Amino acid sequence: MGHSKTGGGISGVLATLALLWSQTAGADYALNMTRGVTELSREFYDLHMLILWICCAIAVLVFSVMFWSIFKHRKSQGAVAAQFHHSTKAELIWTIIPIIILVGMAFPATKALVKMESTGDADMTVKITGHQWKWHYEYVDAGFGFFSVLAADSNEARALGSGKNPEEVENYLLEVDRPLVLPVGKKVRFLMTANDVIHAWWVPALGWKRDSIPGYINESWARIDEPGTYRGQCAELCGKDHGFMPIVVKAVPEDEYYAWVEEALVAQVDASAGADREWSKDELMTKGEQVYGTFCVACHQPNGQGIPPAFPALAGSVIAAGPVAEHLDRVMNGKPGTAMAAFGAQLNDVDLAAVTTYERNAFGNNAGDVVQPAAIKAARK
Hints:
Layout: H1 8-28, H2 39-72, H3 88-117, E1 124-131, E2 134-139, E3 144-148, H4 152-157, E4 180-183, E5 187-194, E6 199-203, E7 208-212, E8 218-223, E9 228-234, E10 246-252, H5 254-274, H6 281-295, H7 297-300, H8 318-321, H9 324-333, H10 349-361, H11 373-380
């Protein structure tokens, strides 16, 4: 279970460069911050440009005076250096003028910072939790949530020996299976934390990034003005799969958003109902293959051979062929000190039953066991 970071450092850097290119320079060959699609992002952009031009004006003035002085008062023209050690007037000038400039820049900067922290009067709240290496989104007001993980085609292409060309995968390493869907024109309050290590949620088009810290909640907000799909990544070095936990925000009109919420709530009810019935082995195998392809394939590989010694094989595994209870414990609670994550809190009863059944009956394993959702429910107690 989990994800593997094959060629992680290089892939992570390339993915970040691809993101920056697609959202800034790639659009019009400009080298600058992206203006973004939110009120905050535009204000930050304008503030950035204001201070940039102030700095440029200061640089032009200072270097012009410096070069003119060097040229005009060079020794070959007979210039003789003045001999003095103190000038109260000069000291006052080069102290007071910078203070005025800094205070002038501080006013709009402080206003922008205060505005960024003002999360009150939000229309909705989304809690974002960083996991190694995926994001969990909880729609607090609507009462449902889901995990968002790297899309299957990117996950497959980045695996060792997959034979799949990453250049042929659309939005390679920047696509997810389930995007964060938000309504246009609504103020969204974000609550950010983490389950394990420090992550950072960053979507350039929104104009900011926030650290997700275990045991602590950061806040931010956004009001997206334009429908569209906006991509980002974790911006904190969070472990071996840091380069493989992208962020995708899909902004849609309000009516489309509420229709999507209704569908998500129905799917949640269906998933809960599915946990109360008995599944056939074929159903569990089909479902389990899907879950395995999303959460397990990067570490244990499509053929179940793993990448020893870091990621052991499931084919012929003692765990997969041993007692069901031990297998469930490993899947649900992980293994401390290894890359094996605990999936008990991440997957529902049906998904856990399905993937356990699949692992015990795939890759040449012939345990013959069929793990029902009811067994997962009992194991949680």
